[in-house]
Amino acid sequence: MRKSFVAGNWKMHGSLASNLGLLNAVRSGTDAGGIDVALCVPYPYLAQARSVLGGSAVAWGVQDVSEHATGAYTGEVSATMLTDFGCIYAIVGHSERRSFYGDTDTVVAAKFSAALKAGVTPILCVGETLAEREADITAAVVTRQLNAVLAVAGIGALAHAVVAYEPVWAIGTGRTASPQQAQQVHALIRARIAQEDAGVAQGVRILYGGSVKPSNAQELFGQPDIDGGLIGGASLVAADFLAICAAA
Ligand SMILES: O=C(CO)COP(=O)(O)O
């Protein structure tokens, strides 16, 4: 049985002052021993996340990581640096990174491997655009994104990672994939992983992301291959985020 996991992706939102209430509310609203809960914060707030969430049932993470271990890479943050702040998770391959910052499948695979090597659990995002869905190539796109990581990191690595299916057309649009649409792609992802290793496929958690709200979370999370969610906008409102966690 896979343990449900709900992770917030704050994206580029927050301030020291506004984060405090949010972090404290999520901390006090999350029980140990239930589902896994994490908040992926902007880099400058990692120390604050550690200070407020340390010792609680809520883990913290980031939204991207460098594919390099160290060196002359101005502006980049390495996975090892993240471990100095107790960071457990790093999102890699988010569609906003892929589309605005040129993160190709190859770069995403390198970031995935760099995170794992440093002991940070990658949350690998995959998902198709609206045009790709309309062209009926969702399966091909998601498989290609997954294959790129499998080719570099190998199937064993997936046992130490989390996958998130985020249809690009559902991110921040209020337009959620129907539970059936999401389940179909989640099953496809698990089947692709099972082609490599059935045990890894059974164990790996596949989250759904894209306009998850308290009102739709339960039905989405009720699907057999949906193991939780990666939450954007709704993770900025403690009551909404906690209601989504309660649905998982
Ligand atoms: O991109 C997302 C999480 O990574 C989803 O964002 P929204 O929940 O705001 O649609």
Automatic annotation (TrEMBL):
<dbReference type="GO" id="GO:0019563">
    <property type="term" value="P:glycerol catabolic process"/>
</dbReference>
<dbReference type="InterPro" id="IPR000652">
    <property type="entry name" value="Triosephosphate_isomerase"/>
</dbReference>
<feature type="active site" description="Proton acceptor">
    <location>
        <position position="166"/>
    </location>
</feature>
<feature type="binding site">
    <location>
        <position position="211"/>
    </location>
    <ligand>
        <name>substrate</name>
    </ligand>
</feature>
<protein>
    <recommendedName>
        <fullName>Triosephosphate isomerase</fullName>
        <ecNumber>5.3.1.1</ecNumber>
    </recommendedName>
</protein>
<dbReference type="InterPro" id="IPR020861">
    <property type="entry name" value="Triosephosphate_isomerase_AS"/>
</dbReference>
<dbReference type="InterPro" id="IPR013785">
    <property type="entry name" value="Aldolase_TIM"/>
</dbReference>
<feature type="binding site">
    <location>
        <begin position="232"/>
        <end position="233"/>
    </location>
    <ligand>
        <name>substrate</name>
    </ligand>
</feature>
<dbReference type="GO" id="GO:0005829">
    <property type="term" value="C:cytosol"/>
</dbReference>
<feature type="active site" description="Electrophile">
    <location>
        <position position="94"/>
    </location>
</feature>
<dbReference type="GO" id="GO:0006096">
    <property type="term" value="P:glycolytic process"/>
</dbReference>
<dbReference type="Pfam" id="PF00121">
    <property type="entry name" value="TIM"/>
</dbReference>
<dbReference type="InterPro" id="IPR035990">
    <property type="entry name" value="TIM_sf"/>
</dbReference>
<comment type="function">
    <text>Involved in the gluconeogenesis. Catalyzes stereospecifically the conversion of dihydroxyacetone phosphate (DHAP) to D-glyceraldehyde-3-phosphate (G3P).</text>
</comment>
<dbReference type="GO" id="GO:0006094">
    <property type="term" value="P:gluconeogenesis"/>
</dbReference>
<keyword id="KW-0324">Glycolysis</keyword>
<comment type="subunit">
    <text>Homodimer.</text>
</comment>
<feature type="binding site">
    <location>
        <begin position="9"/>
        <end position="11"/>
    </location>
    <ligand>
        <name>substrate</name>
    </ligand>
</feature>
<keyword id="KW-0963">Cytoplasm</keyword>
<keyword id="KW-0312">Gluconeogenesis</keyword>
<comment type="pathway">
    <text>Carbohydrate metabolism; erythritol degradation.</text>
</comment>
<comment type="pathway">
    <text>Carbohydrate biosynthesis; gluconeogenesis.</text>
</comment>
<dbReference type="GO" id="GO:0004807">
    <property type="term" value="F:triose-phosphate isomerase activity"/>
</dbReference>
<keyword id="KW-0413">Isomerase</keyword>
<feature type="binding site">
    <location>
        <position position="172"/>
    </location>
    <ligand>
        <name>substrate</name>
    </ligand>
</feature>
<dbReference type="InterPro" id="IPR022896">
    <property type="entry name" value="TrioseP_Isoase_bac/euk"/>
</dbReference>
<comment type="similarity">
    <text>Belongs to the triosephosphate isomerase family.</text>
</comment>
<dbReference type="GO" id="GO:0046166">
    <property type="term" value="P:glyceraldehyde-3-phosphate biosynthetic process"/>
</dbReference>
